[in-house]
Amino acid sequence: MYWNDTRKALVAMLLSFMMLASLGAAPFGAAEAADIRSSCWTSSSLSDDLATVVGSPGRWSCGDPIYSLEGERALLRFEIGPNDVLPRYLFSRRSALAAVHLLAIDGDGAMRQTSLSASELPSALSGGYFKAALPGVTRDTRQVVVAFDLPSHRMTLERAYLAPSDLALGPDLVRYLLILAALVGMLSMPLIFNAAFYRILREPFVLWHSMLTISLLLTILVSSGLAVVLFDPPAMTLSWMTTVIFGLSVAAGAMFTRSFIEPGRMHPHLRRALLVCAAWAMFLSTAHAAVPFVGRPVQSTLYTAAFAPVIVIFLLSVVDALRRGSRAAKFQAVGYIPIILAGLVRLLTGVVPWLPSNDAMLLFYVGCVCEVLFTTLGVADRFMTIKRQRDQARVEADVLERLSERDPLTGLLNRRAIQQNFDRFRAEGYHTIAVLDLDHFKTVNDVHGHVVGDAVLKASAKALQADPQVHAFRLGGEEFVLLLRGKDAQARAERRRQAIPAVVANAVPGLGRPVTASMGLTNSSPHADEPFEELYERADKLLYSAKLAGRNRTRSEMVQGSTNGVKPVFATGART
After folding, report:
1. Distance (Å, rounded) from C-alpha 124 to C-alpha 101?
2. Coil, strand, or helix at residue 225?
3. Whole-angstrom distance, CA of residue 536 vs CA of residue 542
4. Domains in the chain and their CATH numbers?
5. Per-residue pLDDT tens for 4-16?
6. pTM
7. What φ, ψ does residue 512 adopt, rounded to 5°?
8. β-bridge mates for residue 36, sequence order
9. Where are the beta strands (DSSP E) in 316-463?
C-alpha cells in the first residue's frame, strides 16, 4: 500500500514538473517585441507640479538607472518611436502605492493626463501585474510619463512597461491557465490524503501540512492569472492578499516542521524557535500589508530582510534533525530546497540596492511542487512509521494481556482469564464446569520437594489438554478448572481426570504412588444467566464431597432441563 502511494506521488511529481516546463515555455507577458520599457526616471514630492517636473530635463536620470524610493513620487518616462506599436496600457508589478498618474505628451507639447487611485487599478491577466489604461496615444505622441505616488517596492518601477493590450485570451494563454489550474488541482490531492491520515493519526503535523498546502495553493492562485480569470479582484486587493498569504505559508511551514520532526530528533531550542518564526512571519506580513507606508522608502527592504533569521532557523532545524538521524527531515530537506532558494533570491535582490528585484516566480512554483509532494511523501512515510509503532504497541499489549491471563508454570489460562472472559465463554456454549484437585499433593511436595511438585503440576496440566470443546485453567496450587461444551462434556472431563495418573507417572517417574485427582462437575441451563462465582461454588462443593467420599472420584450435579420456570432436575453420581 505504501509503495503504491509513493509511486502515485512520484508520478504526480513528474507530471507537475512537466507542467512547470510547459509553464516556463508559455508566454507570461505581452509580446516582447511590442513592449516599451522606460528610458529615464526621476522623483519628486507630491506637491510638485507634474508638468513642471516633466519639462525639467536636468531632473531625469537616463541610461541604466538604479531606482530609489526616497522621493514621495517616482516618475518613469517612456519614449514612443515612429515604428513602435502604439501602446494602450501601462503594466507593472503589484505593490502598495497611493495613485498612478499617466501623461501622454505629443511632439507639439500637447499633454493628456489621467489619474487612478490605488483602489481603481485593475489586475492584469499577466500574473502579479496591474494595468492602467493610457490617455489617448496617437502617432503624434512622443513620450508617455507615468508617476507613481508613494510606491512601496522597487519592482513596481523596474518591471513597468507599456503594451498595446493585455494578454489575449487565446490558445497560448488558455494553455498557460489550464496548466496552472491542473497544477493547483494536482497539489490539492495531498489534502485528500491528509483528511484520511488525520482520521487515523490525529497528529497535529497533518493539520499543519494541510494548512501549508492550502497557503501555497492560494499563493499560486493570487500570484498568477487564475485569480483574475476566476474572480477579477482589484490589483491592490491581490497585493495585500499575496503579502498575508506569504506570511501564512511561512508560518504553516514552520509549524509543520516543528510538529513533523520526530521527538528527540531536533534540539528543543530550535523547536521553540520555529514557533517564534511562525508568529514572527504572521506579524511581519500582517503589519506590512496593513500599514505599507510607515517606513515606505526602506520598509520593503526591511520586510524582506526580516525573513533572513527565519530562513536561517529553518536551515539549522533541518540540518540538526538530519544530524540526529531524523527520517522526516530527509523529506523536508529535499522538498524545501527550491523554495528556500527562491527565498534567498528574493532576499538578496530585495536587500542589495544595485541588484534588480527578482521574485523568482518560476523557481517558487517549482518549490511549491517539491515542498507539497515531498512533504506529502514524508507524511505518508511518517504515517506508516507511526502505524507500525502503534501496531507493535498493540501486539505487545496483546502479548502482555495474554501473559497476564496465563499461568507461568503450566501455560494454562488462570483465574483472571476465566473471570474476565466467562460471559464470552458462556455465550460460546461452555455451560459445563469441572473443578479438579490433585489428591495428597502436599505429600508429593513434602517427600520429593517443590521441583518435583512443579513437574507433577505440569504433567497434570498436559493431561487436561485443551481442545475446541474444552478450556483448561489453573486456579492456583493443585486446583484446576475445565470449561466444556457439547453433549459429551461429562465424558470428556472424566477422561481427562482419569488420564492424570498415567501422564504424571510417565513424566515424573519414581514417585512411589500414583497421583490421582478428585473432581466436582456441574453445569447451567443454556438460558440461565448464572455468574461464574455461583457455578464455581456449586462445583467446588461437589469436589469437597468427592474428597470426603475417599478421593480419586467425581461428584456431579447436572441440569437435565429447565423450561417455563420449572425447577431443574439434578442427577448426582460418583465415578472412581
Report:
1. 18
2. coil
3. 10
4. 33-163 (2.60.40.2380), 188-394 (no CATH), 415-575 (3.30.70.270)
5. 544 444 444 444 4
6. 0.65
7. 90, -25
8. 162
9. 432-438
